[in-house]
Amino acid sequence: MDSFGLTYPSMEHLLKNASLNEQQVRLYEQKSMDAVFNSCKNMQDGAKKARGDIEEQYRLYLLSGELAGLMTKNPKFEKWIKDKANAALFRSTYENVVEEASKLQTMLKMKYEAAQVRRDKQDRAVKQEAEKRVSSSSSSSQGAMRAIRALITPRELIRKVENEEPKKSALIFDLRQNQSDAIFYNRSEMITVIQVPYDLIDSSLTFQSLKNNLPVNQRALLPRVSGSDYVVLMDDESPELLNNSPAPKTKMSFLFKALTQYNSVDRLRDRPMFMDGGFKLWKAQYPTYTKDEQPLSSRTSPSDGLDQAILDYTSRSYGVSEIRYPDLMSKLSLSESLAPGQPLSPPRIPPRPADIPPEPYSEPPRNGGIGSGGIYPQAPTIPQRPIIPPTTIPPSIPTTTTFDRPGPPIFSPAPPGPPTVIPPKPYQPPPPVFPIPDRTSKPSTMPPDVSASDPSLARQNGGIDVKRPPPTLDRNTKPATISKEYEVQILSIYDQMTMAIDRSIDERTKSRGAGLPGAVGLYNMGNTCFMSATLQCLFQTPGLPEVFTRRNFVSQLNTQNTYGSKGVISAGFASLLDTIWTGPFQAIRPARFLQLFADEVYRNLNDGRQHDASEFQLFLLDALHEDTNQGKRISFEQNYKGGQGIRQEAADFLRKHYQFTMSPVNRILGTITVAEVRCLTCGESSATFEENTIVSVEITSNTSCTLDNCLRSHFSQTKLEGDSAWNCPKCKTPRTSTRTSKLWQPPPVLVIHLKRFALFYGDFEKNTASVAFDAARFDIRPYLHEAAPTDKPFYKLYAATLHNGRLNSGHYTSVASHLRNDKWHRYDDETVTPCEKFQVNPQLAYILFYKRC
């Protein structure tokens, strides 16, 4: 429910609570003018701090205005206002109060009217919802899906989303081979489209393998499958169905089974449907909801030095890893065209810097990847990037700083002798030069063991168990590492991001010693608090500041991994971290980082709207993980039985899993869980392991509960029956079964997401229940599998993302314990306030960050 639905059911009720009573009026009449004016100012300041709660803002502004009115009626006012300073302050304060209160009044009027409409719709739908729940509970238990019709036309789907009461939400899986045209719906929360790579779908597909192999810009959208009213599978045309199910051994059947039978993570509400007429009918009926999907690219004409550095890097990177051969049957290469009569000319090859030897040819990766996104604020359709020779970085200038940050120093000594210099492009000034780290030693594929060089640092940084022995990897094939040439170019991206951030910083916050390194505010650039609050928690996450520094992040990159950004996002994130931990700033403006992230990962995040902080965190962590993933992506099937042999099976899974995926991100944040399914007819069982960087749990009450209640419900036994019945391999038919999910290997940093938001009747509704949790000593043993190791089961809270208000009109803040001194700070956009003691409103807690203690 909305906050005003609980506190202020009507505008009249709100106004009654926004006025002084008689006793308060008499009290203020006896005070001096200065005292009353200070109270008036305090009310105004309190209203500004109450962002996200517009009722409270409006109430405080009205009280401030009433105090100003009392002052004008007081006989002492005439004498007090003769002072020009008092007159100017009173006038500006009163004008601001009137202006802000008028704006809020308009917003509140619209808000209450919309709320009344929603209440009416909900009242009309109560009977339908009650009947649905009664029917569902009588025929099946938790986890079962309702059998619904198999086909739905595009027109029917749009009608349900836009016109039906209550409105519905849909998630469409696009599994066409040619996805050059795609569905585009302006409210992506109502119709979400996930484009599944055609080659990914085969008989071995499971929900977990689908998640692991989706592009980063699609992967974080997958959890929406459990909250959507309709899940629709779409091919070019209508699918072939047998008994309302896809024909066996087809792409449609493989994806259908992955979402239903082989999905123990995000259970669907109802059985998936199929698009009647496929995409061809959609495009014919709704051309306005269709767009051409051009290759993603940041810009054809770079707008600043960062764009140029990315263009230089990606052009050379693509030139090596994605070599295209000319058509021998044609006299022209694929990248050239000639006018009639024009003579043939040899292809142009970008020159290499003189001091860098050419690299041996390596076979290009077979898997397709993703590119970068669009331009801020709206992504246009842009052709493929041209290939431009890279620019080397000029000799370095030593840079020093008086501030220390967690982890190794940022800048390393400059190498002896100047490298070859290529003049910068004419359109931009020459960039400042930075030292190039010494890379003569073989780079490590794991996060640096900072505790080895400084035993006190591990405890300073929150006591993370950074010495946890890594899983043994198969080293028969040397992992892809970044070459010296690419190292120079990726560091150029880092340097250009650093300069872009520096240019955006307010000079008033730049003075040395103005702020505490590590506790720096982030300006709100228009509904960007979802990003700011998330970043502040990640800045204080043990392990991440040690990995993503200018000195260390390059050695972690795998530029051959086509699932990531080839290090571009890691360079931007490392630059942001270094600025936070070394810069003497009170606040910075991360606009360029958001633009870069939208360009490279998910362009919708830069549309000026409010977004879900948990989804942004998933997008960011997935991008950083794939950039630094040193695993060889060797696929494998989990043919595990569970039961008595689950320990040996877990060891086998971890060995194979870390050959598939291994990065500093999943070493720090990766939570391994196991789900066991058992047939109630024959006793056959199956075990499936999976890894996530965020554990998302449902809130078990609408009023109050505990985190323990939520976790016990999440890691509990459910019954699979009806359309959710398990296809027992021994019985060779779907059987009623049980499914039990438990923690198997908790990480050094455990992140728990409380699922407060859900689409309800066409709008996001928030569960404002108070969720109590243990901040000092959180014991995870009740949620561990009985056969799992139980060493170091205690955690303590070090950060939390908070949300006040509704998703579309609320505000994100965060609290976090400083990595260096363990002192708590409250982060509200650009404002950072020290906290004497940890304090979180359990109704506002949204994402909880725990570290092992």
TrEMBL record:
EC number(s) from the headed UniProt entry: 3.4.19.12
| Protein name per the record | ubiquitinyl hydrolase 1
Family according to the record: Belongs to the peptidase C19 family.
- Enzyme class per UniProt: hydrolase
- Enumerate the catalysed reactions: Thiol-dependent hydrolysis of ester, thioester, amide, peptide and isopeptide bonds formed by the C-terminal Gly of ubiquitin (a 76-residue protein attached to proteins as an intracellular targeting signal)
Q: Name one GO molecular function term.
A: cysteine-type deubiquitinase activity
Which residues belong to any copy of the USP domain? 520-853
Instruction: Specify residue ranges for compositional bias: Pro residues.
Output: 343-363, 406-435
**Gene that this sequence comes from:** usp-50
Under SUPFAM superfamilies, the record lists: Cysteine proteinases (SSF54001), Rhodanese/Cell cycle control phosphatase (SSF52821)
Lineage, please?
Eukaryota, Metazoa, Ecdysozoa, Nematoda, Chromadorea
Q: Where is this region: Disordered?
A: 119-142, 336-380, 403-478
